[in-house]
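#structure-requests
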Amino acid sequence: MALDFARYDELVHRIYDAALEPSHWPDALKGIADACDAARSAMFTPLHSPEQGGYAVVYDLPPIVVERWANKVRQDDPFAIAAFSRGLFLDGAAWNGDELVPHADLVRTAFYREIFEPMDVARVCAGVVFDAVDAHKVPTVITVYRPERDAPFAPMQVETLRRLILHVSRALGVMFHLRNSQFQVAATHAALDRLSSGVVLLNGRGGVEFCNSSALRQLQSQDILVLHTGGTAQGGDRLALVPRLQRYSAEFQSTLGDALSPLAAVPGHFSNALLLPDAHGKPICVVHAAPLGQASALAVGNSAPKAIVFIYDLAAVGKVPPTLLCELFGLTSAEARAAQQMLRGGTAEEIALRLGVSVNTVKSHLKAAYAKSGTHRQADFLKLLMALTVAAG
């Protein structure tokens, strides 16, 4: 069946609406199933049980079987096992289930007999919304299902799911970054003020509608971001980088523009953050931006914000002692020292000079530090350290 672009666009808006209204996720999952010519769908956390902060949101799947899966046989899911063992569990990846587990092998498993068969599902198309690299986001998968009597999913449906997952990553990323310790979504201005990260809401023309207390402090310091005054016709004051970060300005404005125009092109994944340095080259700030739906709870007067910007101040991450990194993640002392030097900033060559080792050794140590800490991006590693600092405080 050919993709209906009008319905696709409407579905994308429903996905972003669910960021602040989690009760809308089942309806969004129905739309995702329909877009992929599937009968059922689920969004779940393959590594975390409900007691560990995990969840399962479903469309047209029997709750009792879903509960059995979530609590008893999560570790036996053959698709999750195959994806992890083959190194395929990566942000934005999507596959036809037969690519992971051939259908003939699937139907012989106890998992199929106990879980899939009672739900009348056998054909699978799955994708990774979030892998396991960011302390703010629980590893999450979306899967759409067909019964045994239906044909396997075609490449077009796999690609549709892959594109939708990019939008889901941005909506779920907003939801996860706004969650408090009780997993409630901060969907009011007062709740946003209690977050440690900076939060800025933008109107449809890129003007600033709201800044929480942390963002205001960051703007007042004028170390990274400033407000450029604009008139009503221009949409109001706009976020901009300070002059010393001019070389990052185009990328920063593109990040904001993509968040304001979610349907303009294939979106970037939420994990593609912008990492900014201080005057000495030390990583000092991580910026995420994502679209919002109608977001009535965050409206300023009659104006509903169209995008949200998260600003993570990394000033405290250098306070994490190397010994703690060794204890928590099993880093060697050399890997922990390389990680600490990375926090000071500079190129791999400069870090190598400070440590008295080769550039290749520095790269090898940092690669090992990322892998052992469950990250594969510098921005994710820095946010993990920031989370440790906040927890220790």
